[in-house]
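Lab notes, practical 5.
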Amino acid sequence: MTYPLLGIAWDGTGYGLDNTIWGGEFFYITKDKIQRIASFLPFYLLGANKAIIEPKRIALSLLIQTFNNLKSIPDKLNLNSFVTTQELKILMKMYQQKINSPLTSSVGRLFDGISALLEIVERVTYEGEGAMKLEFVINDLSTTQTYPWYWQYKDDCCSYIDWKPMIKKIIEDYGNHKSLALISAKFHQTLVKIAVTVATSLPIKNIVLAGGCWQNKYLLENTITTLKKTNLQPYWSQKIPINDGGLALGQIAFASQYPNIKKIQFD
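Output from the prediction step:
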């Protein structure tokens, strides 16, 4: 594998250099420089770690950010199906006043929020439960359909994948009683499309997939297949864990290759 390359790091929770929680990042990597070129548009984790256990908090955050206020949310979506009136008041106050509600770009947390929106998972009892169950409802359904999304250029250091159009269409499909299998498959295919779109926008060949989200078999296999169809070369962990379990080995490999480096430039 040669430089430059694109690293697509999709995970649950990782502290970022901008004091937000990362987990949906695209890194352009050369031999001596790492540049964060794109990220998923950040959203709020209402209650911080508690939002990971109760993904309805993430679902509500996604809804508010997508529709600006609760009154604009389509009537077909019954908020009371996953959050009580009292909880809604408390969570709205947290959102408005940004109380214990850090920003995150995490694709893992996006999986959690959508799982709650679709009433697949109400409360997480083990790591990755929301994402796993969202993947499993696809069963054997096959589709190439995707949801809309935007690639926004908001500042000089990073561009953003805007997921709000996708949330609107997911709610529309759900309200029109589309099958959970189809909605989930379209969501996964949208993530594939996002990964490939960013990858093909760069003058590179090598793409590295890393982070817990790539444990998702449907997401990983479809992304690999599509990248190869565009003449790109994907790399992913096969003998070591693709998630946090591979971090230590990666750090050792990096230190071995650059024994005298004290700090790598990170833009």
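Observations recorded by the TA: The chain is about 40% helix and 20% strand. The longest helix spans residues 180-200.
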